[in-house]
Design goal:
By secondary structure, the chain is α+β, with helices and mostly antiparallel strands. 45% of the residues lie in helices and 26% in strands. The chain contains 4 helices and 7 strands, in the order E-E-H-H-H-E-E-E-E-E-H.
Length: 190
């Protein structure tokens, strides 16, 4: 099945916790109640930051210092949140994404994983101020040891945050590629 969401090459930490025998994927209401407080906190702060960014874009150039102070306050909050989220990370359940997007992510595993297994997902993107708690299903890929995790239970606001983060990451990657190309052109011309 084709992923209906855009994906970007990106390494992020993700915890995958297999569901126990007889454990089921929660409905929307149960998922909301189950999400740990730090994930809800990050989600709310991201929503506020997005709203603030819209407001700040409307200020004129005379408010540059105010904008900088607000951005520094936001960075301080992000640092505290990163520390709080570190307590949610389980090193023995940690993997690295290879790609990610609103529909899920791809990753590699040294241990074989069961195709079709359902997992609890904790996805961390601290530099994007995004942390997602969701459920997914694992799909083995053609290359041995490579898997796709498709989200099967995720809050829409978390999916939206992943989509925004994917687009921001792609924009950064394209900008860096353009800068490298410009530097290579400068060196070639010299």
């Amino acid at each position: 099945m084709a992923d209906p969401y855009f994906s970007v090459d990106y390494q992020a930490q993700v915890n995958l916790i297999p569901l126990a025998e007889g454990e089921s994927v929660p409905d929307e209401e149960a998922l909301e109640a189950e999400i740990p407080a730090p994930f809800k906190l990050v989600s709310e702060i991201t929503r506020i930051d997005t709203s603030n960014a819209r407001l700040l874009r409307n200020l004129d150039e005379h408010a540059a210092e105010l904008v900088e102070v607000i951005n520094q306050q936001s960075r301080k909050i992000d640092l505290v949140l990163s520390y709080v989220l570190a307590g949610q990370d389980s090193p023995d359940q940690r993997y690295q994404t290879q790609t990610l997007g609103g529909g899920g992510f791809r990753f590699a595993s040294r241990q074989p994983l069961a195709d079709g297994a359902r997992v609890r997902v904790k996805l961390f993107l601290p530099e994007q101020s995004v942390a997602v708690y969701a459920y997914g299903v694992l799909c083995a890929e053609a290359e041995p040891g490579h898997y796709r995790c498709d989200f099967i239970a995720i809050r829409e606001q978390d999916r939206d945050a992943l989509i925004r983060a994917s687009l921001q990451l792609q924009a950064k990657q394209l900008k860096a590629r353009a800068e490298r190309r410009a530097q290579q052109d400068d060196h070639s011309a010299s």
